[in-house]
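Exercise: predict the structure of this protein bound to fructose -6-phosphate.
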Amino acid sequence: MTAYDIPFGVEVDFETGAMEAADRVIVRRASGMRGYYADADALEQIISSGDPIHYRVYEKAIPEQEGHLLFCMSVLEPGRVGREFFFTKGHYHTVADTAETYLCIRGQGIMLMKTTDGRWAAESMRAGRMVYAPPFWAHRSINTGPEPLISFCVYPAHAGHNYGDIETEGFPKRVIYSPSGPSLADPASLC
Ligand code: F6R
Ligand code: ZN
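Solution:
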């Protein structure tokens, strides 16, 4: 028996997104995002001005076994790299036929999703809205607002993370600032 074979509860703070007594806090700083944004020079400027935190993920160390559910709080800071809003790296699940559900707690943004056969989708994220990433769909959160984008997510514990072609190819759309509001742009238009 592990600690997680018996019921437990945990507190989360909806204002900050912090999970009390998290076993792991994954912290990604700007320097961990090299290669992901179109404007590499703008990212380097952000890194040299203090390498701020891009996002944090709070988790309990649930066994990564079929039957269990992994859940997390994801806190993505507001900001832009060049014209692009801050985003998470994005990933497929290693066990590709596993889904994930996000519940947005605070902030506003977009979840971009894509498949290896070229389909893509964008769903808005705002407090009180749930977004479902079905099996086989890679998913990336983008913070388009002025405050942290805080989400609760839950997925099969054996799913794993596969950053695969996202590190080299990114997503078919990028989310950029425009005076009339966030808009989706083709990656080629930002080169
Ligand atoms: C888990 C999941 C989230 C993300 C988190 C960070 O399957 O989708 O917990 O891991 O939002 O994003 P990545 O892992 O893409 O850096
Ligand atoms: Zn996921």
